[in-house]
Please model this.
Amino acid sequence: VVFLERTYIHTVPMAADDTTNMEVVAMSTEEEAPLHPPNQTLYVSNLNNKLKQVELKKCLLCIFSPFGTILDIVAMNNYRLRGQAWVVFAQTEQATLALSKMQGFPFFDMPMRISYAKAKSDAVRKLEGTFVARTPEQMKEHREMEKRKSEEVRASKAVAKQARREEEALEKKRKAEEERIAAAMNEEAPPHNILFVQNLPAATTDKMLRPLFSQFPGFQEVRMVEARPGIAFVEFDHERRAGAALAGLQNFKITPENAMKIAYAKR
Model:
């Protein structure tokens, strides 16, 4: 018998190393809880993962014990299973009542997500007489498997985090380029060795523009902007030579509908 906050709860004794034989797949608290048939065990997620194991189990016992006899509460400290717990009731009806009443309950300012567990707990199997204890070899294999899964979760999160960083860096670069282009389009810049060319057909390539600008001395390169079809930057070795190309090709019609608009690029 366990005494806690003036509530007596009957528990089924369990081996120290035999926490659970439930074939439970740990879920991210951001995922939707799966639907399983009603049973005596509730899977509780989105719990505060900063709570210590003992404190978490005591708190869960306090809030779930009004709904019926609790046989066991399983909570683990390993990385993959933090923020989750399994609450085992003596009867399915008690678990169902607790699920309906406590769904979304603000537990340490975080709404609990509750569903029926995937499989029977050890406590229920012991009552039914179907429990089979694991051998030391099986326990070791289980611990190693859990360790591997935790490492895989960490690695997966690290890869996802790096991918987000790279995506954010690309987005930042793209926005900076768009701002530079917008500034070049909206402001009249002083003479510069780089020309800003716009009003080009969307299908224009650097190979199409190179023959036009390379006829002017000092031509160096054409740079298209993939994010903004219809514009380009043309670089010369000196602003005077860039000015000659600007004067010579201003309003040159690439197509009957597209007359080039050329200006000095903003420094």
Observations:
- Residues 51 and 149 are 22 Å apart (CA to CA).
